[in-house]
Amino acid sequence: DENKETYKAQMKSLSLQIADSEAQINRINTSIKLADQELQKVLDKIAITSTDNVELKPMLNDAFTLLENSIRQGIPFKLPDRLAALEKIRSDFRAETITDERALALLWASYEDNIRLTSEIGLFKQKINVDGQNVMSQVAKIGTVMLFFATPDNRVGYVAKDGGGYTYKTVNDKEKAESIVALFDALTKQIRTGYFTIPNALVLTGGTL
To answer: Which of the ends of the chain has fewer CB neighbours closer than 10 A, N or C?
Structure first.
């Protein structure tokens, strides 16, 4: 009877965690859809402006600002590289070393890359700040909802929302750390389907584990 009650309590706890995670994921998906809709409005406006042969510069400037804000506010994945690539297009556009139409095409591709990240899962390397240290680490990106890390000195953790930015938090709990290590191992072996147990590190909620 005690085992049954314990089992029931565990199942109830897991059910609540699943329901909470599903609700968080739904909110994130809604946020992504709203962002996509805003991006599409800008792109449609640019397309109409181009078709009408009207000055593109004001529309492009708005689109640059919107995309930059989206990158800065989103998950901290290769931010310096992505922002530098966007700034290169913008500086060439402002210096008029590329035509408005060329800037539009490059900016459109940047928007598509930004949207593609929402469904991409994989391993990458980037410099992160862990416990006050800048370390080149391996990161596992789960779309734009979770980002885990593993440092060369075997620290593992996740990215959490922290006010207007993000923080890299180290996981010390053995079981949770092992689940993160298992995720990295699976992605290293290119195992992308199946059942995985990972800590709840949804960036929308600050990575509550």
So the answer is: N
Are 61 and 49 in contact by the 8 Å Cβ rule? The answer is no
Structure tokens at 191: 């195992």
- The reported pTM is 0.67
Residue 82: its H or E element: helix 79-94
**CA torsion, ordered 154, 78, 130, 145, to nearest 10 deg:** -80
* Distance separating the N- and C-terminal Cα atoms of the chain: 30
Contact 145, 158 (CB under 8 A): no
> Token digits for 96?
């008029």
DSSP secondary structure of 86-143: HHHHHHHHHTTSS-HHHHHHHHHHHHHHHHHGGG-EEEEEEEEEETTEEEEEEEEEET
